[in-house]
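Aim 2 progress update. The chain analyzed this quarter is reproduced below.
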Amino acid sequence: MNMELVARQLVEIACDQGAADADALAIMDTSESIRVRQGKPESVEREDSRGIGLRVFVDTPDGLAFASASTSDVSEPGLQHLVKQALAMARISAPDPDAMPPSGAQHPDAQELHAWKARHHDQAMPWDTESALEAALACEATAQGYAPQIGNSEGAEASFGLLSIAYASADGFASHYSRGSLGLALSVVAGSGTDMQRDYAYDQGR
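Predicted structure tokens:
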């Protein structure tokens, strides 16, 4: 799903329905984690979430008022409902003398955006299920072979995700970026009998 397009559409609907100004933030987040123990897969979890937030400004006799609302329903009826909800809230809100509508903000121009994206490429999903499984198994095996005192494992977990964020405002600016993440976690037990110790370690990066 093109979340930048969804953000643009939401702002357009808001302005068509009477907003003096508006901006929207759309987020799509996908993550997966694979847990292994004693060299065997134990669990696989996946999460997919998406949502969009809208901020609308309305003119009142006493000044500019605004309100914001969010939803996970990015269908056409869902966007229409979100706009109606945000506008209704804004129209009964007290004017805010410090309200800062997005139009007129110093957005980067097309050349600046192009240069930024050339340095920050949109990322693909950093791992897939199979490569994350291999990483978790290798992590646990490395720990168990590190010292003879390490006799048991409480498991290793590899996780990965991709977060995409898009923004659009009523003055025509719109853009997006993505970032991937990886993580490894491990817990092992050393010693024997009544003289045993457990410890863990984890690392995460973008």
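The first helix runs from residue 3 to 16. The CA atoms of residues 26 and 163 lie 11 Å apart. These observations will guide the mutagenesis experiments scheduled for the next reporting period.
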